[in-house]
Amino acid sequence: MAEDTKGMVLTAHLRELRKRLIVSVIATAIGFAICYNFSVELYDILTQPLRPSLPAGQDFLVFTGVTEPFFIYMKIGFVGGVILASPVILFQVWGFVAPGLYKEEKLWFIAIVISSVILFAAGSLFAYFVVFPFGFKYLLSYASESLKPILSMELYFSFATKFLLAFGAVFQLPLAILVLARMGVVTAGKLLSWWRYALVVILIVAAVLTPTPDVFNQFLMAGPLVVLYGLGIIVAKLFGKKKAAPSEDGDEAEEEYGDEGEEE
Fold first, then answer.
1. Distance between CA atoms of 208 and 169, rounded to whole angstroms?
2. Adjacent-strand bridge partners of 62
3. Measured between alpha carbons, how far is 47 from 39 in angstroms, rounded to an integer?
4. Number of Cβ within a 10 Å radius of residue 21
5. Per-residue confidence (pLDDT) for residue 106, from 0 to 100
6. How far is CA 125 from the centre of its chain?
7. C-beta separation of 53 from 133 below 8 A
8. Are 122 and 171 in contact (CB under 8 A)?
9. What does each of the 264 residues of the chain score in pLDDT, given as a tens digit?
10. In sequence order, what are the beta bridge partners of 147?
11. 3-state secondary structure (DSSP) of residue 35
12. What does 136-153 look like in DSSP terms, one character per residue?
């Protein structure tokens, strides 16, 4: 009887999951249909940071295959459709996981999702408005009378989307620290004591992710990461896992989890 009950519960969960996946797919399809109609305009927006850096008299990109524009606009429509449908998708995810969460867990889930979306958007916008203009200006500065850039739609789209996603992911650093602090893996004290190592890692990440090899643009990436690391320390201090209550012998336990190790 117990096995039959478990089977019924599993079947109900699978049906619920299928229903919510279908709704998410339909929402994405509708978003795709809308964004595909504006795919040319969306691609123009994506290329705006590049255009001021192009040589004088050149304000265009090329395509090297007959089907290249078609597939690029399809990709833009799909990406835009996912973004447009993201509120519906997140609502479906919430509807699926919420029944199994306690009240406090629900609050944390909502806070983490909202924070993740905001941080991802902030990282992508920072790359678009700050890093791209400086990076393209530097990279295209090698153009001369005998050396002209011929940029294709496919390569630019791949380059731009990868870096937008990378910067959006990197800006999740405070949220990752928050999760680790709540799990007790890291503490504010440990993060403070690791600041030298963190700085080295940040500089390496900035050197890898920035589109240009010059130091100035690498610092455009490293600067926000340092700020985000500092924000992560504050978040770990405020919301990190608490230590046990004071012991019976009267020794007062530290209130914030992980205050040890603040001094190296």
1. 14
2. 152
3. 12
4. 13
5. 87
6. 11
7. yes
8. yes
9. 555 566 666 788 788 889 999 999 999 999 999 999 999 999 999 999 998 888 777 778 888 889 999 999 999 999 999 999 999 999 999 888 888 888 888 888 888 899 999 999 999 999 899 888 888 888 888 877 778 888 899 999 998 998 898 889 889 989 998 888 888 888 888 889 988 899 898 888 887 776 556 677 677 778 888 999 999 889 888 887 766 555 555 454 444 444 444 443
10. 144
11. helix
12. HHHHGGG-BTTB----BH
Non-local (6+) Cβ contacts of 32 within 8 A are 77, 78, 80, 81
Residue 64 makes CB contacts below 8 A (sequence gap 6+) with 152, 154
Give the pair of three-digit tokens for residue 25: 């797919």
Nearest in space to 39 (alpha carbons), one of 28, 49, 31, 51? 31
- How many other C-beta atoms can be found within 10 angstroms of the C-beta atom of residue 233? 23
CB atoms within 10 A of CB 126: 19
The Cβ-side half-sphere exposure at 155, using a 13 Å CA radius, reads 10
- Amino acid occupying residue 164: L
- Site of tokens 């090297």: 64
Residue 91 in tokens: 């609502």
Using CA atoms, how far residue 75 sits from 6, 16, 65, in Å, is 42, 29, 16
